[in-house]
UniProtKB/TrEMBL annotation:
Protein source organism: Thermoanaerobaculum aquaticum
Keyword NAD assigned: yes
GO MF entries: NAD binding; NADP binding; oxidoreductase activity
Protein name: NAD(P)-dependent oxidoreductase
Keywords, in A-Z order: NAD, Oxidoreductase
Pfam family, one: NAD_binding_11
Length: 294
C-alpha cells in the first residue's frame, strides 16, 4: 500500500490526534473527523482535510481508521443511514478497545455493506503514540494485515498479526486487565504505607530493585498523589469501560470474574467520585479514601 491511499481518521482525541499526525508526517493524505470538531481542526494546519460529517470523511477514503471511545460510538458514526452506503469498497480498521464479540459484529456489519474489516488495537499511551512506538496487534485476514503494514508502521515499528477477528481484541483486554490490576495493586500498597506513616521514599527504595517493580509505578506515582493536576494519558472512564469488557469476556469464556469485578467496582467508584476524566491512576484516591469528589 503506497502513501497515495487516502485515509479517513475517525476520533482525534488523546490517542487519535497524534496517530493522525503520524500518518500525515509519513505522507498519507488524511481526512479527519471528530464528534467535537475543535479537536480535529488543528490537524488542518498539518495538512489534513477536516470533515464536518462522517460521510464526508469516508466518501473519498480508501482506508478508514477508527479510534473511537466504544462500540456504540462506532455504530452511531459509521453505520448510520447517511454514512453506511460509503462503506462499499473501503477498508475499515478498528484501532480502539472494544470486546471481541463487538468486533465480530462490526466485521459482519462492514462486510454487509461491501467493506473489508480488520481489528488492530494498540498497546501504549499518548507518549508512545506521539513517538510512533505503539504495539499494534491485528486480528482478521492476514493478507489484509500485510497490505496495511505501511499504515501500521506509522504507529509502531513492529505490528503483529494475532489471528482472526476477535483474537487481537481479546489480547488487548488481557493486557489492559494487567494495567488496571497493577494500578489498583500499587495504589493499595501505597495507601498501606501512607496510612501506617512509613516513609514513602523508603518504600520505593526497597521496591525499585525488587523483581516485582514495574517502571509504570514511578510514572503513575505523581498522578496517584495529585490526580486533579496531573496530565491525563488514559481517563478513568475509559478504563472503567475496558474493565467492564474484560469482565463480560471473562464470563463468556468461563473464567472466574471475581478479581475483574472488584476492579470494576473500584473504577466505577472513581468515576462516581468525579474523577471520570482524570487519569486512571486516580483510582488511588478511592482506594486510599482521600477522594473528595470535587
Amino acid at each position: 500500500m503506497s502513501t497515495s491511499r487516502n485515509v479517513a481518521f475517525f476520533g482525534t482525541g488523546l490517542m487519535g490526534f497524534p496517530m493522525a499526525k503520524r500518518l500525515l508526517e509519513s505522507g498519507f493524505p488524511v481526512t479527519a473527523w471528530n464528534r467535537t470538531h475543535e479537536k480535529a481542526a488543528p490537524l488542518a494546519a498539518l495538512g489534513a482535510q477536516v470533515a464536518t460529517t462522517p460521510a464526508q470523511a469516508l466518501e473519498h477514503a480508501d482506508v478508514a481508521i477508527l479510534m473511537l471511545a466504544h462500540a456504540e460510538a462506532i455504530g452511531k458514526t459509521l453505520l448510520a443511514a447517511e454514512t453506511a452506503p460509503f462503506l462499499s469498497g473501503k477498508t475499515v480498521v478498528q484501532m480502539g478497545t472494544i470486546g471481541p464479540e463487538e468486533s465480530k459484529t462490526l466485521a459482519a456489519e462492514i462486510a454487509s455493506h461491501g467493506g473489508r474489516y480488520l481489528e488492530a488495537p494498540v498497546l501504549g499511551s499518548v507518549p508512545q503514540a506521539e513517538a510512533g512506538k505503539l504495539e499494534v496487534m491485528a486480528g482478521g485476514e492476514k493478507a489484509l494485515f500485510e497490505e496495511l503494514l505501511p499504515v501500521f508502521r506509522c504507529f509502531g515499528p513492529n505490528p503483529r498479526w494475532i489471528g482472526p477477528v476477535g483474537a487481537a481484541a481479546t489480547l488487548k483486554l488481557a493486557l489492559n486487565h494487567l494495567i488496571a490490576a497493577q494500578a489498583a495493586a500499587f495504589a493499595t500498597s501505597l495507601a498501606l504505607v501512607q496510612k501506617a506513616h512509613v516513609p514513602l521514599e523508603l518504600f520505593l527504595e526497597i521496591l525499585r530493585p525488587s523483581a516485582f517493580y514495574a517502571p509504570t509505578f514511578e510514572r503513575k506515582l505523581p498522578v496517584m498523589l495529585d490526580p486533579l493536576h496531573a496530565k491525563v494519558n488514559f481517563p478513568a472512564k475509559h478504563m472503567l469501560k475496558d474493565v467492564r469488557l474484560i469482565r463480560t469476556t471473562a464470563e463468556a469464556l468461563g473464567i472466574n470474574p471475581t478479581l475483574v469485578a472488584s476492579l470494576e467496582a473500584l473504577f466505577a467508584a472513581t468515576e462516581n467520585a468525579g474523577l471520570a476524566d482524570a487519569d486512571y491512576a486516580a483510582v488511588a484516591q478511592v482506594i486510599g479514601g482521600s477522594s473528595s469528589g470535587s
